[in-house]
Amino acid sequence: MSILVVAEHDNHTLAAPTLHTLAAARQIGADIALLVAGQDVAGVGFAAAQCAGVTKVLLADDAAYAHQLPENVAPLVANLGRDFSHVLAPATSNGKNLLPRVAALLDVDQISEIISVESADTFKRPIYAGNAIATVQSSAPVKVITVRSTGFEAAPAEGGSAPIEALAGAADAGLSAFVGEELAKSERPELTAAKIVVSGGRGLGNGDNFKHLYSLADKLGAAVGASRAAVDAGFVPNDMQVGQTGKIVAPQLYIAVGISGAIQHLAGMKDSKVIVAINKDEEAPIFQIADYGLVGDLFEIVPALTSTL
């Protein structure tokens, strides 16, 4: 099996979801090419060559790929993909934007957000907001797959010595243009990469009360997330949302404060290693998956916990 993995990066560093996607690729086969498409990405290519299990790095260094616009990158991946049995990318915003276009160009179906590799043509993926797991078998000549990073342990970032092959430049398709970006800055860890996450829900009442979670998170060195209900209520910005339509997290410790546990939220955090729930409603669904649960007033419990820590 020959597998093409599309690397996630910021033109400077290789993103962690790439390593999780590589782990999935290694369960499919041993012939793995890692595509790095961007501008001035020699450093990323070198880092990619060090990843364990990578047999070749394909380096597409061109201004057309500077911001990895899918309209420009998709034709590249599709043209390369015809020579591979599988094309994989992380199930991130970029991956979800890119691979459906690749699948359309290759005229094959896409398999989304796999969490397990059963064989080279059979995979498991969550459906119904994670309430069921579907086993999907594909007969497509090229299997186009996004990988949920929380389903696979990261492949080692060192130990490899793959050759780097430069690809010819490309012309801008002219279908879209990069206008700008605003990056949220925080001293706390990034939500999807944090080992500890403290999340708040509608039970906090308003956005000002999230200060209790920020204090707790600072004690723990944790990231802060929120349920969709809290985001929809305007308590916090939507980049903090954890859940099926937000960010998928699987930290070592997840503390859910004032979150009832709607199935859409559980789909985004139930793979956490240890789940702690704090809620005044003892019938809240969150307690069904929590390893530790505390029934009580969060406005008393959280400050007390923060003070004790």
Give the helices and strands, then pairings:
Layout: E1 2-6, H1 16-28, E2 31-38, H2 42-50, E3 56-61, H3 70-81, E4 86-90, H4 93-106, E5 110-114, E6 116-119, E7 122-127, E8 132-137, E9 143-147, E10 164-166, E11 196-200, H5 211-220, E12 223-226, H6 228-232, E13 253-257, H7 263-266, E14 274-279, E15 292-295, H8 298-308
Parallel strand pairs: 1-2, 1-4, 2-3, 3-10, 4-9, 5-9, 11-12, 11-13, 13-14, 14-15
Antiparallel strand pairs: 6-7, 7-8
Keywords:
single chain, alpha/beta, elongated
Number of helices: 8
Oligomer: single chain
Query: Kindly state the mean pLDDT as a whole number?
Result: 93
Following the backbone from N to C, one meets helices and strands in this order, namely EHEHEHEHEEEEEEEHEHEHEEH
Distance between the termini: 51 Å
Count of strand segments: 15
Strand residue percentage: 15-25%
- Biggest sheet statistics: 7 strands, parallel
Q: Order of strands side by side in the largest beta sheet?
A: 5-9-4-1-2-3-10
The low-confidence runs, each spanning 5 or more residues with pLDDT under 50, are none
**Radius of gyration over all CA atoms, rounded:** 21 Å
